Structure formats: C-alpha cells, structure tokens
Amino acid sequence: MKRAIALLTILTAMTFGAIANAGDWDKIRIGVEGAYPPFSSVTASGELQGFDIEIARALCDEMGAECTLVQQDWDGIIPALLARKYDAIIASMSITEERKKKVAFSKKYYSTPAKFAQAKGAGIEISAEGLKGKTVGVQRATTHDNFVTAAFGDSVDVRRYGTQDEAYLDAVAGRLDLILADSVAMAEGFLNTDEGQGWEFVGPGYSDPEFFGEGAGIAIRKKNQDLVDKFNAAIDAIRSNGTYQAINDKYFEFDVYGE
Amino acid sequence: MDFGAIVSNLPLYLDGMLTTVELVVIALIIGLALAVPVALTATSNNPLVTFAPKAFIYFFRGTPLIVQMYMIYYGAGQFEPLRESIFWPIFKEAYACALIAFSLNTAAYTAEILRGAIIATPYGEIEAGRSCGMSKWLVLRRIILPNSFRRALPAYGNEVIFMLHGSALAGVITIVDLFGAARIVNSRHFVPFESFITAGVFYLILTFAIIWLFKKVEFRWHAHLRRREV
To answer: Is residue A57 part of a domain?
Structure first.
C-alpha cells in the first residue's frame, strides 16, 4: 500500500511536471538516435556525441532551456515523440511531406545529398538497367529507403536495416552490392573508417525535394507550434553568432548547412 | 485509427506471412530430424556419448534466440576465412542464417522434450518387447520411439507455437517476414498500433491453425486415452 501511494505521488508529480513545463519550455526532452555517425553516436563510455548532439546542446543553451537527451531507435522515433516520451527530435531527420502529416518541423539545420556507395572497382552503373538484381542496403524508414524503393524498387533487392551501422556491417561482410545513404554520414561514418576502406562513392548526389525534403529539421508535435518558433529563432541565432560554424568546423571541412 | 494504409499494404503482409510460415515449417522439419538422434544419444548411459548432445542442448536452451541469430548472421560475417570459403553463399543470405538459427534452436528444445519422453518409458513396455524376441533396435523403433512421440506431443505443440512467435526475430536481420512487413508499414505511415495489431491478428490465425492441427493429431495418437462411454 505504501508503495502504491509512493508510486501515485510520483506519477502525479510527473503529470503536473509535464503540464508545468508545457507552457514555458525551460525543460525540454530531446529524442536522438545515437547510431548515425558522425551526426549522432555513442562513445565507448556510453556518452552521446556528434553533430546532432552538439547542435541540440547549442540550441538549448541559446533558448536557455535545460535539456535531457533521450536515445531512441530510429524506427520508433516519431511514435515516441507523439507518445510524449520527449518533446523534439534532433536526429538528422529530413523534412518530408509524409512526416509532415504527423509532426511539425523547424526550418532545416543542415542539408546534404544522398549517394550510393559500392565496393571499390565494382563498376556498377546507376540506372534502372545497371541496378537490376543488385542488393542495396538502406536504413529502414529513411528518405533513402523511400527513394530507392520508389525509383528502383522493381529492379533491385532492397535490404532494410534498423540502423545505418548494420548496413555498413553487412556491406563489409559482402552481403550488399550497394549502400544508399547520406553522403556525409557515409563518408565520415564508413568510407573514411578502417572498415570502409574497400568502398567508394558511385553515381550522382540525390537531393530531389520530393523524396529528400528540404534538409534535416527538428521534429516537434504539431500542437507545440510555440516550440517550433523557439527552435527556429535559436537556429537563426546560432547561425549568426558563430556557434553553428564552430560545431560545423569541428566535424566537417565544408559547410554542411547547404544552400 | 487509420486502417487505409494497412489495406493498401495487405499484399506485403501476405508475402510476409508466407515467409514466416515457410521459415517455421522448414526449421521445424530440420529441427525434428536433428532432435531424434540428439535425444537418443542424450539418453545413453555412457557419459562420453551424452556429452556432445547435452552440451548442444544446454547451449541452445541457455542463450536467447536473438543472440544465436546475431552470432550466426553478423558474427559469421566477421571472419575472413569463412567469407572466402564455399560456405559463404549460405551464410551470405539472411534467410539461410535465420533458418540455421531457428533449426538449431528448435532442435535443442525438441530434443529435450523427447529426452524426457524417452526416459519416461515404462520399463514393462521394453520388457514385453524383449520377451517377444524383439532386438534392441526393433524395441526402439516399435515401442520406445512411437510411445515417446505420443507422450511428447502436447509439449511439442507448445514448442511449435513458441517457434512461430520466435520467428518474428527474423525481421531484425532484414528478412521481410510478418513482423518485418509490419515494421515497414509502420515506418512508412507512422501507424504503430494499426500495423502491429494487424500482424498480431495474422499470428493469432497461424497459432489457431497450429492448435487445431495438434488437436487432430492428438485425437488419433491418443485414441487410447479418449474418454469412453461405459
């Protein structure tokens, strides 16, 4: 009985806590993925790191909010936002029409094209004909998944993975002919690593807004339009005060913000 | 609630269900074929003979199926010599890896069920067979094994259902089984409740089919236990 009362007290406190912070946003919980280097990954000691993580912390500082980062698998990252497990997603999520049906987005905070990679010297021609019978690895439920399924789904064998890292593993193991992924994520997270030495980019960069959206934005529940506005203002602020540039330069040799 | 996405993706679910049924049926056949010799050697009195089958049963019952699958799928891919070998075309396919993991796993559980049934054979039955002049093998073939299968049937029905439910793990190594289909639908349309309850309903249907099938077999095999009108 005592435990039940204690539990009830905690639950009540949590409920009121949630209501209390809904208005002023001095505490924000942010959903991140943690398996998408160099944007988001977990160090050997269990710390979150990466471009997304640092941008999230910089935006929180800018807004004067106390942030908690919550790690969540990509598959369930939007359902968990809708289920109020956190208030915003900063996880390299492309702003697409399909996702806009469920969530609201801030303006983009970066934008990079998608590219195919192949085993060095495989000589695969990127066309409906050249891809016939090839296996392509993508991360499930990403813009890359949607694009390759729509554009080449009839001729290729699409293998969908829970995380981008698993696709890299299978590429090294020789189970895949191609990977389609974000060019920067793949360069830093795979091609420039020891494991990815045998792989190279092939074909053009894809950034068709119909599939890839306007870039990566911050996803927020639709009813929290005030939080969207706060994030937009914070993105503008870190863009102009040099914080963004500093984080950008720490990870990349080029401007990841795009056009 | 929005079941529109589910309806338009029904073919995906049906394909997934076919993959699930296929995987489970093949795994169960291979598993059962492996389980009989494993169970028989495990009931030997010679510790040198029982060591290998007992170790096999102990390992596969002692570790989670998902760990076994990751070891076979991702673990095997790590070793260069295996990747160069003639076995790689098998280990390269996610489907074959899932099949290997499922078969070995169900073989271990089935062997343990059978082992229990074999050692529960009443000694009088064996004695009766011997006194009719049957050889050791004939006793095994005509008395011990058939009666053990009978005793093992209810427990084995459970194992088949567990295998069906365990097969949902195939979805995590890129196979589009029933659960894999549900995950794709969920990830495209962000309708977790609808996509997973649909998969759940399909699993229920399959489970009912298994229960029905075992009821039929039990009716025949356990004819001697049927309640009789006096």
So the answer is: yes
Q: Given B78, B174, B192, which is nearest A79 (Cβ)? A: B192
- Give me the helix-helix angle, A243-251 and A225-240, nearest 10°: 80
Cα A95 to Cα A99, A103, A144, B184, distances in angstroms: 7, 10, 13, 19
Tell me the mean pLDDT in the region A27-34.
Answer: 94
Q: Give pTM, 2 decimals.
A: 0.77
Which of B88, B183, B190 lies closest to A78 in CB terms?
B190
Does A170 sit within 8 Å of B184, measured CB to CB? no
Residue of B nearest to A141 (CA): B187
Contact A170 B174 (CB under 8 A): yes
Q: What is the CATH number of the domain that holds B15?
A: 1.10.3720.10
CB contact under 8 A, B183 and A172: no
Chain A residue nearest residue B192, CA to CA: A79
Phi, psi at A6, each rounded to 5° = -60, -45
- Indicate the average pLDDT of chain A: 89
B228 falls within a domain: no
Per-residue three-class SS string for A108-160: CCECCCEEEEEECCCCCCCCCCCCCCCEEEEECCCHHHHHHHHHHCCCCEEEE
CA distance A158 to chain B (A): 9
A193-249 residue pLDDT tens: 998 999 999 999 898 888 888 899 999 999 999 999 999 999 999 999 999 999 999
Token pair in block for residue A172: 């090294």
pLDDT of residue A23: 61
Residues in A closer than 8 angstroms to B172, CB to CB, are: 162
Residues of chain B with pLDDT under 50: none
Domain boundaries, position B19 = 4-223
Tell whether the model's pLDDT for residue A20 goes beyond 50. no
Closest approach of B35 to chain A, Cα-based (Å): 31
Contacts of B189 in chain A (CB under 8 A): 98
Candidates A150, A144, A217, A149; CA nearest to A185 is A144
Residues B172-229 have pLDDT tens digits of 888 999 999 998 888 888 888 999 999 999 999 999 999 999 999 999 998 888 888 7
Q: Please tell me the distance in Å from A16's CA to the nearest CA on chain B.
A: 27
What CATH number is attached to the domain comprising A135?
Answer: 3.40.190.10
